[in-house]
DNA sequence: TTGAAAGCGCTAACAT
DNA sequence: ATGTTAGCGCTTTCAA
């Protein structure tokens, strides 16, 4: 059996409350007493029982992180950053995978008893959408990530998608490109990363006085590498002319690069390629991929901080937090 | 306040114990009683308080997973698999990152109070080594992963490194290669992935009657893409001839591929390239990368099952579990 | 088949 | 500055 506060109290010759005070860094304790208690704690190797503590206090010190799947680099890197940020707030992270966009599973997860062990949740949905906003009304602190749902009942951390996509497009235009193909359009979508980024693209075009050309839009369902490759193949097959490609995420762009190279096109001489997400991997591809760094660490730090605040104060009205991005210029869009 | 067993008992007009029996699927309950209780549960939206349950039962239903960092695809994909496997065992996973090989941090983590909320730990060390085996004697169920420590006091799940590396090397030899450079040698290492894989390489060479050539060994400290690139550069600069490269992990191989292509060498015509780990990414590189699939799902499933068993029965002697691998032939080692 | 009551280890209110 | 005590919500004897 593990040692308890009680055991320590007996050994130190004080009351259980005094031990508790020492453990919880209560201020008004005589140094001699504290000394005695700490010695007893060390001697017995006492560690507080966290189940008992959380039963009593209503806090576990654990936050949940629900995301589609860690096999996708974007989410793996996000989880990495969230865990690091949580550590700074003395929180640990329980990771749940909801799968690649299974709406029902996401909804079920939101009311799973497994979350009981958790003080709050950071949730990155992929299947739920704007129509499900009401389902985010849950009886625990929740911070929403991403671009699937806006104006919901919870705190929301997201990046400036439209501005970022506009800046990325401008980067291509500044490099002298006029015929910029887009990979990742979700036709008919009104809210979400795709439509927000498309809007940024169009704004950049307009400012530069370039006409929008529907034939340059390559629609894809999912944003995996294979989809980027396939979209690029059909774009090439369509015969439409282009001198740049903007992938709405890095994975699409990397898939497209591969097909371009297979087709004998040089990057960036013949076609410049731009990604979005700032994946680690983009530093190492051949050529290295220009991308938009969405400020992952800032997103994670903000999400954890907001959640921690929300755990402290549940009554404050929900807010939206926008993080900063930066355009990262690499070989795939180099000029001259 | 959340509803409790007590509330349900009152509403259903039974004792608290009866409700508990229903919740825990105790058999001998009159159907009518169960009905009544279930109705009350549904009506109140009752969910058991897991802190209270675990205080009483000593179980949390949470297992810990400690690994270096999720930003490394290998560990992200491992975590994905472990979380999936845990779900099948009705367990949730708390993920801890120990950083890229910080021994002190790993040791500290092993006795962290944060693990209190956990029924056991799956631990993939990267800084600790054979000399630290004794430190794995911990007062909770522990399953060790990887190749850093053998014969420790805990259960251990690992792959057949030597056999797998031998099979990979044989694959290159069968493709007609005789001068196979190796990326990832840790000089002076006696235990660990590197030395085990090197041994497999040497065995394959020996069987094929090929002399071992020290000049083909490219030592690297870390196994990141940049290290693979750098090692390949120095190998090329050294002027030594080779017709194949075996990276001791996929990341090294991918880094090397990039440098080979920059140098104008064709893969696989001039140099065949083989990786190790079976990362998702190897399916999408240009060319696709031949690799060794270490059976990640099997590793994860085994680790979780063994841990769950160990949680049930702490007294059984520790065992070692070896998982199956397969050589995945792709474009980077294609012949003809 | 169901009920009563003890207590897991801790924190917090109150008392001294 | 330190001690006493009452639960937090649950499971688990032990009874009935």
TrEMBL record, chains A, B:
Note the Pfam families from the entry: LacI, Peripla_BP_3
Q: Which domain of life is it from?
A: Bacteria
What SUPFAM superfamilies does this protein map onto?
A: lambda repressor-like DNA-binding domains (SSF47413), Periplasmic binding protein-like I (SSF53822)
Please list the residue ranges annotated as the HTH lacI-type domain: 3-57
- List GO molecular-function terms, semicolon-separated: DNA-binding transcription factor activity; transcription cis-regulatory region binding
What keywords are annotated for this sequence in UniProt?
Answer: DNA-binding, Transcription, Transcription regulation
Tell me the PANTHER family matching this sequence: HTH-TYPE TRANSCRIPTIONAL REGULATOR GALS, LACI-RELATED TRANSCRIPTIONAL REPRESSOR
Q: Know the name of this protein? A: LacI family transcriptional regulator
Species, as recorded: Mycetocola zhadangensis
């Amino acid at each position: 059996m593990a040692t308890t506060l009680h055991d320590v109290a007996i050994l130190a010759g004080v009351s259980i409350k005094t031990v508790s005070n020492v453990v919880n860094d209560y201020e008004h304790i005589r140094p001699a007493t504290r000394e005695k208690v700490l010695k007893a704690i060390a001697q017995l190797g006492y560690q507080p029982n966290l189940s008992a503590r959380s039963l009593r206090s209503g806090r576990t010190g654990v936050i949940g992180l629900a995301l589609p799947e860690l096999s996708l680099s974007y989410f793996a890197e996000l989880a990495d950053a969230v865990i690091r940020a949580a550590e700074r707030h003395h929180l640990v992270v329980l990771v749940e995978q909801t799968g690649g966009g299974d709406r029902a599973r996401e909804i079920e997860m939101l009311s799973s008893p497994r979350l009981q062990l958790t003080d709050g949740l950071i949730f990155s949905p992929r299947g739920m959408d704007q129509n499900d906003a009401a389902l985010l009304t849950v009886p625990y602190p929740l911070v929403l990530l991403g671009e699937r749902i806006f104006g919901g009942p919870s705190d929301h951390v997201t990046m400036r998608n439209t501005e970022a996509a506009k800046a990325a497009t401008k980067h291509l235009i500044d490099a002298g490109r006029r015929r910029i193909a887009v990979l990742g359009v979700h036709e008919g979508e009104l809210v979400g990363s795709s439509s927000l980024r498309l809007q940024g693209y169009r704004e950049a075009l307009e400012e530069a006085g370039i006409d929008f050309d529907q034939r340059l839009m390559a629609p894809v369902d999912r944003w995996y590498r294979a989809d980027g490759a396939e979209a690029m193949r059909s774009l090439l097959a369509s015969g439409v002319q282009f001198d740049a490609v903007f992938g709405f995420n890095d994975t699409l762009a990397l898939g497209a690069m591969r097909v371009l190279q297979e087709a004998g096109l040089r990057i960036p001489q013949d076609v410049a390629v731009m990604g979005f997400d700032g994946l680690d991997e983009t530093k190492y591809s051949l050529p290295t991929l220009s991308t938009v760094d969405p400020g992952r660490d800032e997103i994670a730090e903000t999400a954890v901080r907001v959640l921690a605040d929300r755990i402290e104060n549940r009554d404050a009205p929900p807010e939206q937090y926008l993080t900063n991005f930066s355009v990262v210029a690499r070989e795939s869009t180099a000029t001259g």
